[in-house]
Amino acid sequence: MGNVKAIVFAILAAIFYAINVPASKILLQNVGPTTMAALLYLGAGIGIGILSLLNKKSRRQSERLSGKDLPFVIGMIVLDIAAPIFLMLGLSYGSSSNASLLGNFEIVATTVIALLIFKEDVSKRLWAAIALITLSSIILSFEGTDSLHFSYGSLFVIMATVCWGFENNCTRNISSKSTYEIVILKGIFSGLGALMIAFIKRESIPGIGYIAAALLLGFIAYGLSIFLYIRAQNTLGAAKTSAFYAVAPFVGAFFSFILLREKLSGTYLAALAVMTAGSVLVVADTLIRNHAHMHKHTFVHMHDGSTHTHTITHVHEHNHYITGALHEHHHARAVLECEPGAKHI
């Protein structure tokens, strides 16, 4: 899959996921947080399972998961049980707009984990973006500049993003396998795990209408989003795919203001400005790729009646702008020394 198609998939995944936070905030008035998390993932697993049955050709062409993928599959499922529970708790304690914007901390968690554990490259530009997003997250974690009262809702959301940061990297390692199989396993087993926790907590069972709404939301915001995310991740990698998720919090915050009529506080606007700057850097870093290529060139010349062949190395560094608007080259000089009087042909 080409880079442009992968980027489109990543952005669509972000938009689908953005619906989750404000819609879940509304449903949480009648559904317990752990039950809500379970229904969201069950909706994802069931929905993508139905699509899989309808698209047998694509399913046959995909490589299935194997035994060596089991550690990553287990990690993915466990983390996907914990993350949405933390998010639903965060929504219960805090505002939807704050939770939406704090979702960008997932970029920080995913990138740092990708760097430290999975050795993906992280540029200086991306480090600057991480610093800005972290600063914005700190600003949002306090409910007011006067009292500096820490927001437990924000803490739960950040815990969710860290879980998803680990989960993104687990999924990255199996993203070349069947996307249908990954999402179905993720949805069904994560949903059943969260449902067991909800029963242990003795959360009340919601009405059938709320169950149906939560399942549908799960199919769109989790199922379709995860499906497109994995397809994009297989091409772009964990760090860069999460970068395009930077648009999700802003779309989610917009929905929060429209659907929930949440007010814009001074703290939120300050955090929004810092988060925007960080997100712009993230997208710029993803669009501009630094490459270094090494080429070999062969020169043939005659000397003292004999033909000589010299092979030299040529280092070729350039920036690729995916839009194709700019293509810069920097060439390292290569020197070929021959004895005086040699004739080159």
Task: Describe the structure using short key phrases.
alpha+beta; 345 residues; single chain; 4-stranded antiparallel β-sheet; disordered C terminus
Walkthrough of the structure:
This protein has 345 residues and is an alpha+beta fold. It is built from 14 helices and 4 strands. It has helices spanning 3-18, 20-27, 33-54, 56-61, 70-93, 96-102, 105-116, 124-140, 152-172, 179-200, 208-236, 238-244, 247-260, 266-287, and strands at 288-303, 306-321, 327-331, 343-344.
Question: What order do the helices and strands come in, and which of them pair?
Answer:
Elements: H1 3-18, H2 20-27, H3 33-54, H4 56-61, H5 70-93, H6 96-102, H7 105-116, H8 124-140, H9 152-172, H10 179-200, H11 208-236, H12 238-244, H13 247-260, H14 266-287, E1 288-303, E2 306-321, E3 327-331, E4 343-344
Antiparallel strand pairs: 1-2, 1-4, 2-3
Helix pairs in contact: 1-11, 1-13, 2-11, 2-13, 3-5, 3-10, 3-11, 5-9, 5-10, 6-13, 7-8, 7-9, 7-12, 8-14, 10-11, 11-12
Brief overview:
By secondary structure, the chain is an alpha+beta fold.
SS-derived structural category: alpha+beta
Biggest β-sheet strands, sense, barrel: 4 strands, antiparallel
Percent of residues in helices comes to 55-70%
Strand residue percentage: 5-15%
Strand order of the largest sheet: 3-2-1-4
The N- and C-terminal alpha carbons lie at a distance of 43 Å
Give the rounded overall mean pLDDT.
Answer: 75
Number of helices: 14
